[in-house]
Request: fold
Amino acid sequence: MTTTHPRAERAARARQAAARLAADGIDGVVFGWVDNAGLTRVKSVPLAQLEHAAEYGVGAAPCFDVFLVDDSTTSSTFTEGPAGDLRLVPDLDRLTPLAAQPGWAWAPADRYAQDGTPHPGCQRRFARRTVDALARRGLTCRAGIEVEWIVADQSGAPATTGPAYGMHRFVDHSDYLRDVLRALTTQGLAVLQLHPEYAPGQFEVSVAAEGPVEAADTAMLVRHTVRAVSARHGLRSSFAPVFTEGAVGNGGHLHLSLRRDDGLDLAHGGPGRHGLHPEAEHFLAGVLAELPALLALGAPSAASYLRLVPAHWAGAYRCWGLENREAALRLITGSTAGQANAEIKCFDAAANPYLAVGAVLAAGLAGLDAGHPLPPEVPGDPGTAERLPTTLPEAIDAYEKSVLLREALGAHLFAAVLAVRRAEAELFALRTDAEIIEATRWRY
Ligand code: GLU
Ligand code: MG
Reply:
């Protein structure tokens, strides 16, 4: 049961869910969606309204499609002004009581027009379309998005400065980390790892791979949860691409693996490099070919380009390599069967995860259909390899020229994203790096 089911069915399902949630002491449900600027926006309803909301959705202005990171708005060919209405329809499959916000449950939302037709600017629906396109080729993708964040105290300073990956941080924030782990697990998420990262105050959590849309939902839920646990501990959390100037930033690495319907893992046991099957090589070649344009979706902020620099393990080079943490595409073979996957490292947490995952699948599929050859591997420091765009305007240029993304996103969504990127590029054009970081640090 997704939001694509008929209204009456959604309502019946919501009625049952509401009864269950009431028995669990839930008062209200918060609906989350991620806008084109990469910010998670929410609306909530009391439990008594869940049925109505599942049936008809709750109101949301169409101009949310052209909101910028600072809450100002721009306009696009299809979206302008304060008039009109869209409906946010919760996906009851992901309805989750929030462990760190007692009394609240959460669900991701799709967006519809008032007449019940899908909104062409809905990012979650776009991601779903690319999954369907993959399925038509007899392929299934599993995806996972790593979440990195900085924990800060109320003054805004990193709450811990112990060594990178260090025991100090883990011990000093023992209760906090336990509560993050407990909340995620209680909410049904399969946590794989939780650890201190490199930058001051930085931690990371990774969760098990799932379907691409579900992985994007999970990325939103993980951040929501981390933020809630932080608040309960009197801490602040930031998912911004860069928190401290010059320091390593927050990535939003996207892991992908492909399987054929007959169960064949396309990154394992094949005749190609490191066991890749031809389909996987073509798919990765398609992603590499489109990567500069994809950055406008996966590294969407002016701040993204302050993170995406060499020697930060951010994947600033347009190349691939086995276990190469400086390559934009890191191939991971894993230690047991079924673990092989490709990691897109150049993406960060300012990305709308639905746009990021959908666009990567579209690019990979195009590579597959065209039989693109995968270029030679870059094994070590990519020093002389081609750099990815080094500024937001460069990535926007590539995006604007991408026929592939224009077609995959559809005219409406493509134009809205372009308008937001251009307006943000303009917003930050005259600012220093420090000012860009300052303006984005607490927004994502
Ligand atoms: N924090 C790094 C980034 O900006 C990634 C570190 C890692 O390899 O996990 O993407
Ligand atoms: Mg990391």
Observations:
- The longest helix spans residues 403-428.
- The pocket of glutamic acid (ligand 1) is lined by residues 148, 197-198, 248-249, 251, 307, 312-314, 325, 345 (CB under 6 Å).
- The mean pLDDT is 96.
- The CA atoms of residues 58 and 201 lie 37 Å apart.
